[in-house]
Design goal:
Helix content is about 20%, strand content about 30%. The protein is built from three helices and nine strands. The strands form two sheets. The chain has a seven-stranded mixed beta sheet with strand order 6-5-8-3-2-1-9. By secondary structure, the chain is of the alpha+beta class. The protein is globular and about 35 Å long.
């Protein structure tokens, strides 16, 4: 009698196993997908590119870069005398992405910067009296003594961490808003 039941029981077990496999095939996999998800599509319209938030810490002032991508806020140290301008960001090992230094020359003039004793690449942004970006020296070479000219008269120079200007989409013709620039 058992020999006659065994084939039936074997078919029942096999049918149950197949039903279980079919159910599992319909359930979402618990394993991560093998293909990466499609890249996110940028949404149109202005946005901020991870700028400074809150009140400026002691010794810093707020400044905003206005680009086609939007506004980005930075906290900047002010170098407005010969000794501060001469030292600049020399000997620094890091400049956080939301920080920088603004050099105030008070009256328009052509200037040239260099990277002597500057240990990290910087973006050097030359700014006219009305806050318009005249030119940008991107990812300057650390420790170089080669002059980096402004290309025309400027009132201010903004130094940011190397590559930061590209990250926020800053281009000549864009605006920098800070108290040292006339509203125009």
């Amino acid at each position: 009698m058992q020999s006659k039941l065994w084939p039936r029981r074997g078919l029942s077990v096999l049918a149950g196993a197949l039903a279980l496999l079919a159910a599992c095939a319909q359930q979402p996999s618990a394993q991560p997908a093998r293909e990466p998800p499609p890249p996110a599509v940028a949404q149109p319209g202005p946005k901020s590119a991870s700028g400074a938030v809150g009140e400026a810490p002691a010794g810093f002032e707020a400044l905003e870069a206005v680009t086609q991508q939007g506004r980005t806020r930075f906290f900047v140290e002010i170098a407005d005398n010969d000794a501060e301008r001469e030292k600049g960001l020399m000997f620094r090992k890091v400049v956080p992405p939301d920080r920088g230094m603004l050099f105030d020359f008070k009256t328009p003039r052509e200037v040239a910067f260099w990277m002597k004793n500057t240990l990290i690449p910087l973006d050097i942004i030359y700014i006219q009296a009305d806050g318009t970006v005249l030119s940008i020296a991107r990812n300057t070479t650390p420790l170089s003594e080669a002059p980096i000219p402004s290309g025309g008269p400027v009132v201010g120079v903004l130094e940011l961490a190397g590559g930061r200007a590209a990250e926020i989409g800053l281009l000549p013709g864009d605006k920098i808003e800070h108290r040292i620039f006339k509203r125009g």
